[in-house]
Each structure stands twice: as C-alpha cells, then as structure tokens.
Amino acid sequence: MSLKFSAGLCLVLFVALSNCASFSRKVKLRWPRNARPKTEIRNRRQVGFLPLCGSAQFNTFTQLCCDENLLPKMTPTTVCCDHTTYDPLHQICCDGAVYQKSQYIFPKCCGQDAYDGNTTGTICCSSNIHTGHGPSPACCGSDNAYNTLTEICCDQSNVLPAVGYTSPACCGTQSYDATSFLCCNNMMIVPKSGPNSACCGNFVYDTSTQICCGGMIFMKPGNASACCGNMAYDRVTQMCCQGVPSMKPGANPACCGIFAYDLTSSMCCSGHVAPRSPSVTMCCGMFSYSPVTHLCCNGVVGIRVGLMPSCCSTFVYNAATHLCCDGNVVIPMNPNGCGSHA
C-alpha cells in the first residue's frame, strides 16, 4: 500500500467518525411561535400556571375548590355544591345539601330539602314543603298552602273554604260566592237584588233606578242624575252649589255661595245675590249699585252729591263745598282747613 493511499484513507475515516459522534451534543430546537407542540404548551400550563384554592395550588382535572375547600373531582361532571361536591347527572344540590335523583321522579329543591315535584298536592312555599292540597295547589302567603279547586286565600294569610262557589271571593275574614252575593264595606255579605246591584254603605241598591250619595240611597231624579253633597240632583234641570242642589234660575246659571242665580239679571256680591241692570254693574259689600249715580264708601252705598262727590268714612260728600275731618263732613270755616275745626 502506497503512502498516498494510506493518508487519504485516514482522512476519510476521521471525517466519518467526527460526523457520527455529533449525536451526543445537545441541540436546542427553536420552534416558530404558532408551531410549538400542543403537548409542550399543555404541560407548561399544568405545571407553571396552576390556580389557587386558598393558598394551595390544585389541578383542575383532578380536584375542585369549593368554598376554599380542596376536594377530589370524582367524575368529569362533578361540580361544587357550596362547600361540598356533587354530580348533576345523578344528584341534586339544594342550598348545600346533596340528594340522589334516583329517589325522586321529578326532583326539585325547597330550601335545603328535596322533594318530588311530580307528587299531587305537594308544593314549596317559602322553603317549606306542603303536602295534601289536591291536584291544583298554591301558596297562601309564606306559611300556608291551599287547594285552589276547593279553597281560597284571603289577605295572603287565611285559607277559607270555597266548595261549590262559581266565583269565589273574599270579604274580610269570610269567603263568599260573588255570583250571588256582594261584600259591602269588606265586612257585610248581602244577597244581590238584581244584575245591577251595588253596595251603598252596608246596603244594596239597584244602580239602574237608584243612586247612592253619602251612604244614602235615593231614587234617580232624572236621566243625568248625580250627587251634590249628600243629596241627589238632576244636572239637566238643577245645579250643585257648594253641596246644595238648586233649580237652574235661567239661561245663564251660576253659583254664588250656596245660591244659584242668573248672570243676566243678577250678580254675586260677597256670597249674596244682588240685582243687576244695564246701569247697576258693581258691588259694594253685599249690595250692587250704579257707579253713575252712587258711590261705595267702605261698604256703604251713597248717592253722589255736588260737583266733586267723594267719600268720608261711610258718607258721601261734595268735596267742592265741604271738608272731611277725621271721618266727619264739615263746612270749612277758614282757609286753615281742618285745623280750625280741631
């Protein structure tokens, strides 16, 4: 073998051995962000980002944290029931109490108790189970239950009998049939007198022919009957003035206190009816007067006198010829006016 061949062979063997030995070196793979293996991501989440239950970490695949109590997760569907666990597929959670669904046909909760919602006559009222109330039970307030087919609930507290009633209703602490009776003042049950019956106090009257005013029953005085205080009146022919009915006095009726009057021929002066005319158009206290011929002096009507009629207290005087001194009409004695009459 020549020297050149031996040297070449040695070089080939050295390169081959060097490549084969490279497998023992550690190689760090750099994965693209979106191409990182899912197993690696899952393992990192399970180990590096575990949630806390109180101050302890736990594995959500095998454990549950219920009110800071760390409990084993028995099945994949197990969840918390307050401070404990249950499986909703086979159990029911009632305010922290767990019951087996297999014990009931239609399991329901009533507070911390479970009951069969398919049982006839059973109902839950304010977290209390009531039984034996027929095919149509209902709650009466928070503490009672009743059968709606034979009983009635009054004032959300009293269960009263209603057997045979077409339209059961309550009247205070009693039950009655509203088809044939009336409840007056929430205390008196009285029979109806006809299809138009109604209560007037503790009595029954016929609304088609009668009217109730102030707790008293009157025959209707007309087709437009109404109440005026404690009395009845006809709005067509009468008018109501402060609770007192009166006949309409004319074509332009109006009220003056409790009195009715005609605006055409009368006027209202301080609650009193006074005569009106083309010249008499003003009031002076309770009286009417003509401002052309009279003056009103402090509620007293007086005839105009002289060229300068004026008032002096309740008197009319001629200011051109007389003086008004301290409410008295006097004849001036000198240019000093009232001073000379002191």
From TrEMBL:
Keywords: Signal. It holds the Pfam family Galaxin_repeat. Residues 1-20 form the signal peptide. Residues 53-185, 198-327 form the Galaxin-like repeats domain. This is Galaxin-like repeats domain-containing protein.
